[in-house]
Amino acid sequence: MSYNIAARDQRWNRVIALIFLAVLMVTLMVVPAFATGSVGAEQQIVNGVSSGMYKLYSLFQALLAPIAVVLVVWNVFKALFFGEKGMEGAKKGIIIILAIVAVVYLAPLIVSTVSGWFSGASGSTTNQVFSPVWNDPTGGGG
Fold it and tell me: How confident is the model at residue 73 (pLDDT cuts 50, 70, 90)?
């Protein structure tokens, strides 16, 4: 039985990268929670992050369409000229491309649906969102 050190190292590199990404995302989510200062500082942070994310999403959406077209054309080329192996790879590639395009273009719907699930939370700052005070929809007390 042979032991492939390169494959093991590649797996560990992926695990470390995923852990780093998760820690980074949690850190970036928590940083605005400690913002204090003038009245409305939290809302300014929320507005700034929201505006920046919308601009980033718009840029990503604008770049995605031409890249997806080029990748689909490449996969069609592979299907036509690389034989059966190219056909299998092209089918897989086109399915992945379509899934990514669908997720990106449906992202606003997904985000609004998920945020609608939490619309009953009365927290207005990030600290309150992490430990929200939920409104009872039935109107009954505790």
Answer: very high
